[in-house]
Amino acid sequence: MADGGLARVLSKQTFDPENFVNKVSQGGEDELDEMQKKIQRLADETALALKRNVYKHYSQFIETAKEISILESEMYQLSHMLTDQKSIISTMLEMSLTSEEVVTPGEMELELPTEDDVQSSLSILLEKVEGCSSMLEAPGRHLVHDGDLLELDPESLSPIRELRAFLLNDVLMLAAWLPHRRGLVKYRFQSLYELDNLAIVNAKDTGSMKNAFKILMFPDTRTFQADSPKAKRQWLDKFEETKKKKTARDKQRKDATTPDRSSITSPLDSSNPFTVDLEPSSPVSSDRPQSVAIEADLLHLPWLQELPEDLDVCIAQRNFEGAVDLIEKANDYLDGCPKSAAIREYRGRIEHRIQQLTEILMKELQISPERSIRGGPRAARRAVTQLIRLGRSAQACELFLKNRSTLSKYSLRQVKIEGNTALYVKKLCELFFNTMAETCQEFIKAFPDHFGCHAAFVVWAKQEINEFLSTFKSQVFVNKTPFAVVSDCVQEMRKCCDQLSDIGVELTFVLDCLMAEDIEKAIQDAGDNQMDAVRHRAMEDNWLPMNFQNVTALQQFENSMINLGIKNIHKYTFGECFTELTQNTIQFTKSYLPFLDAMMTIYSSQHHRLITAAFVDILEAQIRHAQVCARDTKFTKEVV
Amino acid sequence: MMSKPKAQQPATIHKVIMVGSGGVGKSALTLQFMYDEFVEDYEPTKADSYRKKVLLDGDDVQIDILDTAGQEDYAAIRDNYFRSGEGFLCVFSISEQESFQATAEFREQILRVKNDENIPFMLVGNKMDLEDKRQVAVEEAQSRAQQWNVPYVETSAKTRANVDKVFYDLMRLIQRSKEASQNASGVKKPNSGKDKKDKKHRKCIIL
């Protein structure tokens, strides 16, 4: 009770601590004790209450935090959508410019939709469907009808997937539902059928299949189910209507372009269904019908007419060479023709397929987890060659090099780390530079006349080396790696790298440049070590000839010295087990000579000063020690 | 007891395509076969497909009929129809010489698209009930059929004469052609026997 009162007093806004303490201190010691206990209890209670409150609000904290992060992501989406919108607007501006050029008087009469309609319908498409931007580049294209369809298995008639279909004035586009819709984008582009050759079949209801229709486009036969009889009717009618419009448009163009021809083979005379209706020839420009007629003739070669379909077949059969042959043939031919709308339209059809082919070829070069990495350079070369022929040398080059990078990294990872650093590094170097050499040879073979790409190769090689060096450094230039091992590794690497210059790639300078700092440090450290050793030994020197105790030990000593390069060691030995040299000198020799070797191994002109300085300093230190000893009274007595 | 338990949908589907000039009675034949109805009023077909479960020599099979438009102008679209078919009923009207002449061109196009001389194909002279208006002599049609090495049958969608016959005969041709290509590729279909008894016997063994 009293506690509650006290709490109220303490939490009063006008609470004056001094006054309170004054009052309390008047009551004497006991009262103070009592008050202290009370306040203590109050403090504990408050702490507990605070704790409880924190727990209570904890879940709320989390929720709020979540809310904030959601809000954040939404803001991000919003900004993303705004940029998208902006790009759409700019694309549309571009499109409207190009379409104005192509709209011909003949089309004007037939095409009712205004520019605004065209733009709005296209923008809907762009907003909703992912990956369809390329197909919307065709001028004058607009949306006629769209709706949801359920695709059925053509054999068993069981549902396969839901699709959204968009009928445009000359093509049918199918888009799959995106599982996770992102903003307005609900669909992903799936396939595109040219209305020209598309056969639409009304499938009569049987059993489970209702409101269905089929589209036949060799080699595809696809069955779709509409929601209701009305929806299906609408689809069929729209198809019919759109096709008719397109036919009429094409015919009008043709009639206008070839007035003389229509009298010979009248396409309108339908008593004979086999008047093979050729491709849309050309929009009219009435002021020069003569030249246009010639253009139409130019396009009416049988092989040219069949070319788009042949291309499809080649692509489906993965006969990439054949496909590119066809494309080149077509391009050669079209280049010889005057530029006209008809040619442009035909080119558009080919372009669409080139795009497809290019994508497939690029996929060939991309390394995906499900494909074996061991396809090897020869497999890649095939795709690269075709891409180059398609004029995509830059992409081909980039993909090819990326492919090689992955390959190289993969094979480097296969090398097992062994206890022996030098051995491991040697293996790594050999592998890396062999791969590099192979890549180089492949590259020269694959891009024989594309010198622009060679620069890319050099840049790539430099990057690769850079990356490899970071691995190399982490293996070699770390503490405690003996200097001899470091110099061995560096030498190995230089040797491997030098081999590259045999095939025309000189990268040693890059290596030296990148390693300079580390090498300097290694030299410095090794030099310092030597100096320390010299000083250390000097302190313990007793300046006595070495006694090896027996003949064998002496023999061993002589051999080891001969191995180090001191061939006349016999001069300094006497008796059965003595040498005139001191312990200090022997140890110095044994450490200094290998140090010299290692230094000379790692030597490059760049480090000349540093290396010579190290040599001289150490040698001087040792000589100084000898001089000091010579003057030292302790030793002079013994010598005397 | 003897027969293998099958799914609701019989596995085999025979895809038949009706071809011929406009107005020769392709749809009438199809509708008569499908629904036992003769449709008097003429309305040009665009392209309709039908499916029906039938009993062919004791086996449940499905027939998928694609009734094409005689007036289809675009060769490329016709190609797409023809590519999807396994057997063809090439129909003309015995009362219209032009429609008979057109069959040659249909035949040529089918052979070009399917690239197979032995594709299941039947020449069908429809409207045999209109004997008094006959313009195509039986001998004329038969000689063309012989030349192509295909059967010739005259039908009447109106009286239902030979309607079932042409569809069933064509399905048998398709069946035989499928078996031949399966045997060629080394796969033997279990129920390829001609004799019913024999077939049952085989199934027994398989089970």
TrEMBL record, chain A:
Region Disordered: which residues? Answer: 238-289
**Which Gene Ontology biological process is one annotated for this entry?**
protein transport
**Keyword Protein transport appears in the UniProt entry:** yes
InterPro entries assigned: Cullin_repeat-like_dom_sf, Exo84, Exo84_C, Exo84_C_1, Exo84_C_2, PH-like_dom_sf, PH_domain
Instruction: Report the residue ranges that make up the PH domain in this protein.
Output: 142-244
The listed locations are: Cell projection, Growth cone; Cytoplasm, Perinuclear region
Write out the biased-composition intervals (Basic and acidic residues): 238-258
Question: Which positions are tagged coiled coil?
Answer: 25-52
State any GO CC term.
perinuclear region of cytoplasm
Q: Keywords assigned by UniProt?
A: Coiled coil, Exocytosis, Protein transport, Transport
Classify the main location.
other
UniProt key word Cell inner membrane: no
Compositionally biased residues, Polar residues: 259-274
Protein family according to the UniProt entry? Belongs to the EXO84 family.
Q: Tell me which PANTHER family the record gives.
A: EXOCYST COMPLEX COMPONENT 8
Q: What does this protein do?
A: Component of the exocyst complex involved in the docking of exocytic vesicles with fusion sites on the plasma membrane.
Q: What is the protein's given name?
A: Exocyst complex component 8
- Organism (species): Paralvinella palmiformis
High-level lineage:
Eukaryota, Metazoa, Spiralia, Lophotrochozoa, Annelida
TrEMBL record, chain B:
Any GO BP: signal transduction
> How is this protein positioned relative to the membrane?
Lipid-anchor
Q: Which compartments is it annotated to reside in?
A: Cell membrane
Q: What is its EC number?
A: 3.6.5.2
What InterPro entries would the database entry show? Answer: P-loop_NTPase (IPR027417), Small_GTP-bd (IPR005225), Small_GTPase (IPR001806), Small_GTPase_Ras-type (IPR020849)
Q: Which CDD domains match?
A: RalA_RalB (cd04139)
GO molecular function (one): GTP binding
Q: Which PROSITE patterns match?
A: RAB, RAS, RHO
Matches recorded under SMART domains: RAB (SM00175), RAN (SM00176), RAS (SM00173), RHO (SM00174)
Q: Name one Pfam family in it.
A: Ras
Q: Gene Ontology terms, cellular component aspect?
A: plasma membrane
- UniProtKB keywords: Cell membrane, GTP-binding, Hydrolase, Lipoprotein, Membrane, Methylation, Nucleotide-binding, Prenylation
State where composition is biased (Basic residues): 197-207
What coarse category fits the chief subcellular location reported for this protein? membrane
Residue span of region Disordered: 178-207
- Protein family according to the UniProt entry: Belongs to the small GTPase superfamily. Ras family.
PANTHER family, alphabetized: RAS, DI-RAS, AND RHEB FAMILY MEMBERS OF SMALL GTPASE SUPERFAMILY
Name of protein: small monomeric GTPase
